[in-house]
Amino acid sequence: MPLTPKAFDVLRYVVEHADRVVTHDELLEAIWPQTYVNPEGIRKYVLEIRKVLGDQRNPPFFIETLPKRGYRFIAKVSDERKAAPSGAIAGAAGDMVGRAAALAQLAACLKLAADGQRQIVFVTGEAGIGKTTLVDMFQQYVHGQLDVRIARGQCIEGFGGIEAYYPMLEAVGSLLQQGDDDSLVRTLAKRAPTWLIQFPALVKPEQREPLQREILGSTRERMVREFCETLEAITAQTPLVVILEDLHWVDPSTLDLISALARRREPARLLLLATYRPVDVVLTQSPLKPLKQDLLVRRLCHEIAIERLEESEVADYLTKSFRTDNLPAGLATLIHQNSGGNPLFMVAIVQDLVKKGMIADERGQLRLNAPVEEVYPGIPETLQQMLEIQLEQLNPEERRALQCGCVVGEHFSVWAVAAMLGEAAASIEEVCDRLAARQQFIRCEGIHAAADGSPSARYEFRHSLYRQALYRSLTGLNRSTLHLRLGEKLMAVCDAGKSELASELALHFEEGRDHARAARCLMLAAENTAKRFSYRDTVRVLRHALELMDDLAPDIRPELEVPVLQRMGDAHYALGEMYDSAVAYEGAARVALKADSKPSQLCALVHSAAPLWYIDADRGNEVCQQALAMSKDLADPLLAAQTQLAAASFRLLYDAWREEDAEICTRAEQTLRTKGKVKFPGEVFYVYVQAIRGNYEDAARQAETLVNTTTNPTARVLASGANGLIQLFRGRFGEVRKIVRSGREGAEKNGETPWMYIFGDAWLRLLCFDFQGVQNVSMRVDAEEHAAWTRTVARIASGYAAFYQGRTGEALEHFAQVRDFQVTPRFFLHWHWRMHAALGTIEALLGAEDIASAGREAGVFLESALSVADPNMRALALEIKARVARAAMDFDEARRCIESALPILEKFEIPVTAWQVHRTAWDLFTGDGDREKADRHRAHAVGIIRQLAGSFEECDPLIESLLNAPPVRRLLPRVASA
Known about the structure:
Elements: H1 5-16, H2 24-31, H3 40-53, E1 63-66, E2 70-73, H4 88-93, H5 100-114, E3 119-124, H6 131-143, E4 149-154, H7 166-178, H8 183-191, H9 193-196, H10 205-214, H11 220-234, E5 240-245, H12 252-263, E6 270-276, H13 278-283, H14 288-297, E7 302-305, H15 311-322, H16 331-339, H17 343-355, E8 359-362, E9 365-368, H18 372-375, H19 383-392, H20 396-408, E10 411-413, H21 414-421, H22 425-437, E11 442-449, E12 455-461, H23 464-473, H24 476-495, H25 502-511, H26 515-531, H27 535-548, H28 557-574, H29 578-594, H30 598-615, H31 617-634, H32 637-655, H33 659-675, H34 682-693, H35 696-709, H36 713-729, H37 733-744, H38 747-750, H39 755-767, H40 771-778, H41 787-804, H42 808-819, H43 830-847, H44 851-866, H45 871-887, H46 891-907, H47 911-928, H48 931-950, H49 957-963, H50 966-969, H51 973-977
Parallel strand pairs: 3-6, 3-7, 4-5, 5-6
Antiparallel strand pairs: 1-2, 8-9, 10-12, 11-12
């Protein structure tokens, strides 16, 4: 029986110092350095060791307790550890029967994994068939090998399927507990910060802020990629076995992770072993079945199907159990027929026969105390009947403890049982120890931290069927009462800061028929999944919360339904599902209206404006007008400021830049900063407004704060997108490339379109003159709600591609389509892109030597650019007008334009525009014969271009695209040719 990690540390320390007494202080210093631990905890671990070793206190065989002094290991110690012999597989099998072939298959997979060939193995079979027993035996075999790590996690029925990555997080936690040093923590910090943040206890206070900055803009895809890379790093030297049990209750995110692990081509000394029940997978329509089938077809996994035992194997079990070859005639047949070859039923039937005295072992001879035909009618036909008989034989204390334990789950702590019964933990632990000692229903798992962090004995049902049978034996009222008691106890712990209990709490309140509190806990669970960037899981959890509200009283339902619908809108927005997002937000507004909750209705309306502006600008504007009118009626200055900030930001970004709207934003934001707090959606869309204005420092700081602190999926995605846009404007192309790459990786596997990052990729490629790349990227988003944006950027790219290839007429046609409101409707920053199309039009007219038309367009463009606060557009408008004036031989006007553009470069960090202004200044002063000024501006342009190119990783193809672009190649002939 395995020890908990700290109990093992205690045992190992006393064994290593078996020649002397080890004091309490010495143990505390050796195992818990710089950590306060109650000395009583050591006694608990020693008791756990004694339970596992079968030791006693008087007289002891292994550990001697010396009162007020310490402990001494008194058994003989010898160092005989060596590589497992060829017969290790047979030795690991022990008394297990009928599974030697399966164990050999697992051993063969381990050998392949140790050689660097990653292995994914599914062990399948019905309940009670022996999957866990096989895995336990294999784990014993692995422990006999040198330098093999084991991590083990389990899916939990009910709340386990809600929590994203639940079994894998448990496995990682078990692996971290085994570490003798902090190397694993360092590896996580370096390679998988998105996973390290899931273990707050491992993050030191001084690490938290840098870690939050590191995971800025993280996505679900990044979590998958980081975990895969981390496992590859961990297994570079030491093989790792990851065991995940009961995958029929798995969450979708863990399946995505398994899929990614299986499909990667990099070498890894990894064996991932997962168990599940095929019938349950079919009944729940789990995506596990098609995943396994796909991996099997591609030869990326193995399946070991555990079959029922044959009669000969039942006989083998009886022979091993009773250590005799002389079995009564017909006994093996009898047990095989009544158990159906199911190992769990087989063991239960044999134990039942022994307890009834029907089987006796007399001097090494096994005999039946009645003829076989008389024994048969007395054997229960089902495990449920058998357990009912066994339960009747228990005393009331034992029965209550088991009934409470089965309410907790397959694993339960004394702390939880005590919470339900309202009794002392010590007496409950004694009851459970008696049951475990009799090998009846449960086994001891040692001392673990309870939900509140205190040390508590933990037990496990000997099989999930035991727990299920006990659970079914409870009356409906008793069952709901126990769930409710435990939920109320856990609620206090959750409220104290352990939000990870939310899914478990929701399950207990749901089973306790308190659907209101269950829904609240599901909202918190949805926040947890959103923090792991699993937004589809977030939607699934929230839908379940809505289902629970059908039974709620009309007076309390709206206060829960509104926030649930709003959170669903947030999650859909984060996924880029704008229509679904709008439907959810509008549903929240209708519920609030029906409940006559004006503030809630206003909040929902403002939220709905975000997706509505995106898919239909007129509807978005209409909702904003409705919200503004409502905010005036409420006479709440803070609500009014929130609404004004959001509405004005939407108009600036989706309609047109108007200085009066910019001033409204400034005043509203100042009011909120002074008297309250800026909230979503105004806070995040105002970041974009700040970025457009060129206030990059403030905008970047606000975006980073949002990503680090918000629990709103929409705000997080938008803030991450804003961060990418800010880096793009600042010329940090390499950083944008990293953000885009991490957001897009694994999207096909996860079934999510990283729309925000695809847009960023297209914009970056456009600035690097990779016009074909823009076309290819834009085609990756086919959702209708994103069509306006993708078609626009694709048309601009096509226009420039045609222009540089000398097809001026075609270029002008593409740019005209972008500028035509009948062809291109309003969308996010549409006016910005129409100005880019106007800029392209002037470029094409200059190329066609239509100077008069270019001059008219340049004048209109400059007027438009000066009406917006975007320093990039202002500088670009002055730069293109200078070129038009130079082409028209109006050199004074050209100089005036350039001299007006240069101060903008000094005031704002706009390198993408700056190199173009300096290039035109170089041309202008070269024509004037002012070589000194010309060279200075050319040097500025060259330096900026090198800075842009240097921000990329070496050999990034966008470097070549940028340096070989015609406008750049003229500046850098040597670099381009190199």
